[in-house]
Amino acid sequence: MIKLNKILCPTDLSKNAAHALPYAVELAKTYGATLYLLHVVDAYWLESTAIAQLPDYTGKSLYNPTQTAMGELKIIKEGIKDVEIETAEIFGTPYVEIVRFARQEGIS
After folding, report:
1. Residue 62 or 17, more confident
2. Does domain 6-105 have CATH number 3.40.630.30?
3. DSSP state, 49?
4. Contact (CB, 8 A) for 7 and 24
5. Where are the domains of the chain?
6. Quick check: 83 pLDDT over 60?
């Protein structure tokens, strides 16, 4: 019998990505696995917005991707019951960082 200890559910926090979440949660419940919610902030997107040099109206960054993503992941986490959940947010190229994260955490 297959034993799954860790389930990885990468998300870009879009409505389309949200469709995968119920399946990941159900797998985690069925196998008693830890669910890892991962968001990768695309480094290319950050670079392109930095080049745009948007004016600073408030003395603070107009968009803080870390704060926004972690807030969204927290909301998702609070809505899921009966599953151990770990959240992570990293910067880089999404397809590279998702694979790197899975290997680093021993998710196979």
Report:
1. 17
2. no
3. H
4. yes
5. 6-105
6. yes
Residues in contact with 13: Cβ distance below 8 Å, sequence separation at least 6, in sequence order = 39, 69, 72, 73
Of 25 and 62, the one with more pLDDT: 25
In the block, tokens 């009966």 appear at 82
SS3 of residue 75 by DSSP: helix
Q: What is the mean pLDDT of residues 87-97?
A: 93
Cβ burial of 92 (10 Å; 0-12, 13-18, 19+) is middle
Write down how long the chain is.
108
**Quick one: which H or E segment has residue 73?**
helix 65-78
- Residue 90's nearest CA partner among 41, 54, 43, 49 is 41
Write down the pLDDT at residue 42: 86
Mean pLDDT of the chain: 84
Q: Looking at residue 35, what DSSP letter applies?
A: E
Please say whether the beta carbons of 39 and 13 come within 8 A: yes
Whether the CB-CB separation of 40 and 92 falls below 8 Å is answered with yes
